[in-house]
Amino acid sequence: MSKINQAIYNIHEINELADRKNLVNLVHPLIKLLVTISYLICVISFDKYDFIGLFPMLLYPLLIHYMAELSIKSSLKKILIILPLICLVGIANPFLDHSKIYEVFGITITGGMISLVTLVLKGLYSLLASYLLIATTGIEGVCYALSLLHIPDIIVTQIFLVYRYMFVLMNEANAVIEAYSLRAPKENGIHYKVWGTFLGQLLLRSFDRAEKLYDSMQLRGFHKKIFYAKSQKFNKKDFIYLLVSLMIIICLRILNV
User: What is the CB-side half-sphere exposure of residue 26 using CA atoms within 13 A?
Assistant: First the structure.
């Protein structure tokens, strides 16, 4: 299976996870969105040298994995693809911050090293929380929750369409790569001399496909507003989930390790 096909399969898998019926999936989307935002704020609020204090925050995503019957190994496999980008953001820290923080067996641990580790942990936790929100709610549920928060329709619609049109772009890219592989079977990947042509073809094919999809949406009555999910009422379980989750997150935040 090619990398693009694997990516498409992973996205479909996430959509299937969101359709399941379990304790976390049945919670109102707005409640899960508020809990996730609270968790992200708490994670970001840690000092850049306080990487030890971040460790307890891992308990919350682990708990959600257990309650939602999700595989931690599978989740990490999906989000670790993005982790190098986070490392790239903080890669200069050890060269810019030489302040001595610790000394272990004669080796000086500088503030830059500590801040890099803290940044990676914050990124890992934030990715995990965002992934859990999508895997237990689905993009329709998340957009529905955003609309309840009175986020402008144009922003919510853009988020929804970007998620949906990813399939179009990936399918077109897969078709172009397969066509190239058939015409150049001895090539290992795409030769750099045809990268420009490849990107041009991909852009034109994606535009053409997107226009057809937009025409289809208009024929079905699309008028710049999408009804993302069925209206869902709050119940006692939702408020209990919100209260307990916030208590756990706040306790983890103030826990002094």
Answer: 8
Domain ranges of the chain: 20-139+231-256
Reported as half-sphere exposure (CB side, CA atoms, 13 A), residue 96 has a value of: 7
Cβ partners under 8 Å of residue 154, min gap 6 = 224
CB 102 within 8 A of CB 117: no
- 108 SS3 class: strand
Q: How far apart are CA 257 and CA 252, in angstroms?
A: 10
H/E stretch holding 103 reads strand 100-104
The length of the chain, given as a count of residues? 257
Three-class SS state of 109: strand
Q: How far is CA 162 from CA 139, 168, 182, in A?
A: 11, 10, 30
The verdict on pTM exceeding 0.85 is no
- Residue 99: CB partners within 8 Å, gap ≥ 6? 110, 111, 112
Q: What is the residue-wise DSSP string for 155-183?
A: HHHHHHHHHHHHHHHHHHHHHHHHHHHHH
Dihedral sign of CA atoms 68, 233, 130, 111 in order:
negative
pLDDT digit string, tens, across residues 128-168: 999 999 999 988 889 888 888 988 888 888 888 888 777 77
